[in-house]
Write a structure and sequence with these properties.
This protein is of the alpha/beta class. The chain folds into two domains: 12-180, Rossmann fold (3-Layer(aba) Sandwich); 184-375, Dehydroquinate synthase-like - alpha domain (Dehydroquinate synthase-like, alpha domain, Up-down Bundle). It contains 14 helices and nine strands. The strands form two sheets. The protein has a six-stranded parallel sheet, with helices on both faces. A three-stranded mixed sheet has the order 5-8-7. Bound molecules: nicotinamide-adenine-dinucleotide and fe (ii) ion (FE2).
Amino acid sequence: MSQAFNFTLPTEIIFGAGALQNLGDILRGDGIKAVLLVTDPGVAQAGLADAVSQGIEGSGIEVRVFQKVEPNPSVETVALGAALFDGFPFQAVVALGGGSPMDTGKAIAIMATNPGDLTDYQGVDKFNNDPLPIYAIPTTAGTGSEVTPFAVITNRSQKFKVPIGSQRILPRKAILDPTLLTGLPASVAAATGLDALTHALEAYISLEASLISDAFAEKAMQLIGGNLRLFVANRKNLHAAEAMLMASTLAGLAFAQARLGVVHAMAHPLGGFFDLPHGTANAVLLPSVMQFNSLACPEKFRRISLLLGGDASASSVAEMLRQLNRDLGIPADLASLGVKDEAISDMAEDAMKSINISVNPRQVTHGDLVALYRQVL
Ligand SMILES: NC(=O)c1ccc[n+]([C@@H]2O[C@H](COP(=O)([O-])OP(=O)(O)OC[C@H]3O[C@@H](n4cnc5c(N)ncnc54)[C@H](O)[C@@H]3O)[C@@H](O)[C@H]2O)c1
Ligand SMILES: [Fe+2]
């Protein structure tokens, strides 16, 4: 573990049941007069987009709604949203939804103030002009995008998930209201909750882990260990929803500091090649990759086992994760999700390009990743 770190969080976190009701006042207090609300059809169907846009309008702020975001959102979708700026020069982006609308909102905020194509800005801090301010409202307890400096947008023609990183896309405010999660389908609650768990686990064993990222990751694991099953069983359990929403934000804070690892490196190509939901891709890979990683840091795995409610044995973690997947209805293999063996070598090649490979506690080669994909095929 490296013990030197800098920690800054420009994002104000506003947490609590009913927190969303103050959004209009919050925007008005920040001097905002016109916003683009970025969301997706599922969130709109759940009635959340109308409630939010009415709340904003009620404070005398102009709103236009862009609700065309798809899961694994594309570069083209970002361009469609950003093009609205020409006729409606909004001053801020309100991103309402899971990681897909939040990442799209971040990317639209960049493209509203910068020329060219989003792919020009792939990598870290590649754009010149400051993006518009972003107000993030998560409706899944999963990605932590509300507190991370990342956006992941898919280039469909290259089957590649384009990573964009900058402290300047950290949302100005993150409004965490657990009542927004009560309408989640059980399958989405399960997959997104396992994404949050993957963030906490990978940040915890990352070579970049520090005392501060460990503090966030440990609390996230403990909350998820105690609440994910309860939340999937009943999304109206407000206590469990609150715990999961806090856990996903804490896990986001952990990996914003410490980065991730091989699970995420391998999950992104599964999204790019086969459009698998991000959380499901992580969940299927998680037990086998953690078994592989446990060789590198057994002490941390003993601690993980305890935090997840097990005994102090490093080898029990993979089995605990397998049982969690079974309980939550996550498939045990990738083939049943449509993944084909012939894509594995290309996916492993893309995975090796991820910035998360170099911080994984166990070194990996292209051949290791091929073997790990095959293990869960
Ligand atoms: N920026 C980051 O730091 C970061 C981290 C992890 C993942 N990601 C990205 O986030 C994306 C995945 O986000 P996600 O897992 O949150 O899923 P998502 O945003 O794609 O949403 C999944 C589904 O759930 C529905 N949904 C969301 N909230 C709902 C609600 N309250 N009620 C009913 N339906 C609801 C949506 O309509 C959608 O159909 C991926 O593209 C992934 O790469 C980003
Ligand atoms: Fe993730």
